[in-house]
Amino acid sequence: METPPPSATHRKRIQLIAGLCAVAGAVPLILRYGTAPSYPSGNPLPVGIGELPVGKLLVIDWHGQQVYILRRSAKMIGDLERNLEQLTDPQSAQSRQPDYCRNPLRSRLPEIFVAMGVCTHQGCAPALNLPSDPGVAGEFLCPCHSSKYDLAGRVFRQGPAPANLVIPAHRYADATRLVIGEE
What we know:
It contains 2 helices and 9 strands, in the order αβββαββββββ. The chain is an alpha+beta fold. Strands 1-9-8 form a 3-stranded antiparallel β-sheet, with no helix packed on it. Strands 2-3-4 form a 3-stranded antiparallel β-sheet, with no helix packed on it.
């Protein structure tokens, strides 16, 4: 004995139930993960920066990755206005960073730069390169494939890295302490 084919009404009812189940399953995921910032945050880590000299890079471990903290000089800050046409995203429009770092210096305070020390190409650790020639601007240079970033973590076009360095959430507890992971 053959079973009769399902009616169009029955098929539509099953499609409606399947659609409602998909939406019901997706809503908690969207609420849980849809509101997370696109930059690293959480698990706050206080860092003392009071003794950090100008031109020195402090490297700390946070979430199993390196975070760079650089105290920039007035010259380093001035150099960030040079070579804008050579940068992939000079205004940081496509960058992963908190809104308070969406400025030409990509920092809360002009003299302190905070970034994840991870190249956006293949995850290598870029090295700080401060040339002795005062006419040459400093940079972060990835040793693996020669991607270059300026001292605001903005990537130069000639390398393979697709994006600027990522800026984690951070705030200043006071003049000598920075808290990574909190806003």
